[in-house]
């Protein structure tokens, strides 16, 4: 089978890498891909924009693509699945109506309240004065969110009125583009975040291993929000009892609620949850796709062939599949970023040491990279590489990831040196 993977990040490199481990997958084509996917055996890049749905469908039909796997949220929110379905192609990823669960935080909040999914108290605003008045009435700390897609950066946990008001102004003044048409103001929950990614065919929903991301750019979880600076799995805080509660109180309610709205949701449903000190939980947000960098620590531990699970979702037979099989051990990944990220950063910096790092026992998933005209790997984004390792325990896996990073160099390289600090304690 030939598979087309849409996207150019670390998540897509990890998806291609995992798919190619199956003898049933003869070739993977990534659109547009990155320097890492260009270097994989039996994998190639197709230089199309992720919103060129017509170009992708034409290529898929002409080249016998058996499955399209959509990585990023933007094409899903734009309706790529609907378009490819209209051309008779099999697609892993929800239709446009389902992608609203990530594309609009206001929509998702109303949905959660309607179906009884535990979530933080929130209010939605269309202009700044009312939002600021609400913040003042609720008190600090408080969370201010851009409504739409903002690449993981449209959230401010405000610890002062000035911060909250500044975030409201930034959103309405267009810092996050069309994501700033609405502002969601939400109570600030205390605890630890956990990411639960689940596969669904619209009828059955099965969680993957729980993971913990590190959203803040700075060590000690300070500074601006990013797309994620590192992750590990399985997250110990998500105990079997907790996962049972998440299955019944969140995942199954969500799929039933979507179905009741006439939405046939097939793909990943990703619940970002806050686990309170007393063990209770609430949903912070839903995403409509594989998480990044969570995918980079979940897939190395997956024992069931990935394409079997994805096809079962697309063909609505997930309930017939045996339980998902997992390898023993744990996984961790550390993100190396361009200097200045998540703000302004330069591109085109030559990267060295990737082969040396992999020789030291890590897997390097490329995120913001490309091949230049001299066939050198150069930086091409904010998050550049994911240095990923598995081990019997977190001490081993995390230490090996950091040993791998020592080999890698590019101008302005930045990474957090405390990934996994919660589990190492």
TrEMBL record:
<keyword id="KW-0547">Nucleotide-binding</keyword>
<dbReference type="InterPro" id="IPR011761">
    <property type="entry name" value="ATP-grasp"/>
</dbReference>
<dbReference type="Pfam" id="PF01071">
    <property type="entry name" value="GARS_A"/>
</dbReference>
<protein>
    <recommendedName>
        <fullName>Phosphoribosylamine--glycine ligase</fullName>
        <ecNumber>6.3.4.13</ecNumber>
    </recommendedName>
</protein>
<dbReference type="InterPro" id="IPR020562">
    <property type="entry name" value="PRibGlycinamide_synth_N"/>
</dbReference>
<dbReference type="GO" id="GO:0005524">
    <property type="term" value="F:ATP binding"/>
</dbReference>
<keyword id="KW-0436">Ligase</keyword>
<dbReference type="InterPro" id="IPR020560">
    <property type="entry name" value="PRibGlycinamide_synth_C-dom"/>
</dbReference>
<dbReference type="InterPro" id="IPR020561">
    <property type="entry name" value="PRibGlycinamid_synth_ATP-grasp"/>
</dbReference>
<keyword id="KW-0658">Purine biosynthesis</keyword>
<keyword id="KW-0479">Metal-binding</keyword>
<dbReference type="Pfam" id="PF02843">
    <property type="entry name" value="GARS_C"/>
</dbReference>
<dbReference type="GO" id="GO:0006189">
    <property type="term" value="P:'de novo' IMP biosynthetic process"/>
</dbReference>
<feature type="domain" description="ATP-grasp">
    <location>
        <begin position="109"/>
        <end position="315"/>
    </location>
</feature>
<dbReference type="InterPro" id="IPR011054">
    <property type="entry name" value="Rudment_hybrid_motif"/>
</dbReference>
<dbReference type="InterPro" id="IPR016185">
    <property type="entry name" value="PreATP-grasp_dom_sf"/>
</dbReference>
<dbReference type="GO" id="GO:0009113">
    <property type="term" value="P:purine nucleobase biosynthetic process"/>
</dbReference>
<dbReference type="InterPro" id="IPR013815">
    <property type="entry name" value="ATP_grasp_subdomain_1"/>
</dbReference>
<comment type="pathway">
    <text>Purine metabolism; IMP biosynthesis via de novo pathway; N(1)-(5-phospho-D-ribosyl)glycinamide from 5-phospho-alpha-D-ribose 1-diphosphate: step 2/2.</text>
</comment>
<comment type="similarity">
    <text>Belongs to the GARS family.</text>
</comment>
<dbReference type="InterPro" id="IPR000115">
    <property type="entry name" value="PRibGlycinamide_synth"/>
</dbReference>
<keyword id="KW-0067">ATP-binding</keyword>
<dbReference type="InterPro" id="IPR020559">
    <property type="entry name" value="PRibGlycinamide_synth_CS"/>
</dbReference>
<dbReference type="InterPro" id="IPR037123">
    <property type="entry name" value="PRibGlycinamide_synth_C_sf"/>
</dbReference>
<dbReference type="GO" id="GO:0004637">
    <property type="term" value="F:phosphoribosylamine-glycine ligase activity"/>
</dbReference>
<dbReference type="GO" id="GO:0046872">
    <property type="term" value="F:metal ion binding"/>
</dbReference>
<dbReference type="Pfam" id="PF02844">
    <property type="entry name" value="GARS_N"/>
</dbReference>
<keyword id="KW-0464">Manganese</keyword>
